[in-house]
Amino acid sequence: MANQIEIELRGPGFTQSAVEISRKVAPKSISKLFVYNATADSLKALEGALEKLSPDFAAGAAVLVVTSQNLPRGAEAMLGKAAKVPVRVTKPTTSVPFSMTDQPLHYDPAENSIMSQLSQDAQKQQAERWKIMKETQNRIFEITQDVTVNKARTADKMYEAMDNYIRN
Fold this sequence. Notes:
Helix content: 40-55%
CATH topology of the largest domain: Rossmann fold
Structural class: alpha/beta
Largest sheet: 4 strands, parallel
Radius of gyration: 34 Å
CATH class of the largest domain: Alpha Beta
Order of helices and strands: EHEHEHEH
Shape: rod-shaped
């Protein structure tokens, strides 16, 4: 059994890229194929590329087409028939687990992706650093104020002591 690999295929030159990939990989070794820059005009080229790569897909392999454009109805089925593996089409902004089971694709905003968790953690850490900085500045101000008042009191006491010495 060959090593399972993940491949990226970028348009618009799908056919040429597919030929190059097919030459480099072992049969039945591609587990996931990510396709970028697909348009309605490039579907025929993508279909040919997937037909060329179909012998290289491993059992259980899948293709994910990431495009910002709306592809025609039936594009997923047409590409799946050419690739002989499940094909899903998604927008680049959706967060989709790469699972080609019968579960429909969906975007659930309640799901925390790793990026949003990192972002939330960074915001919490920044807020905590800000709080610590504010407390530190308040303490420095209070200490400076106390020192200034104590110096003034000490100077006043010394003045009074000298004044008493001179008067007596």
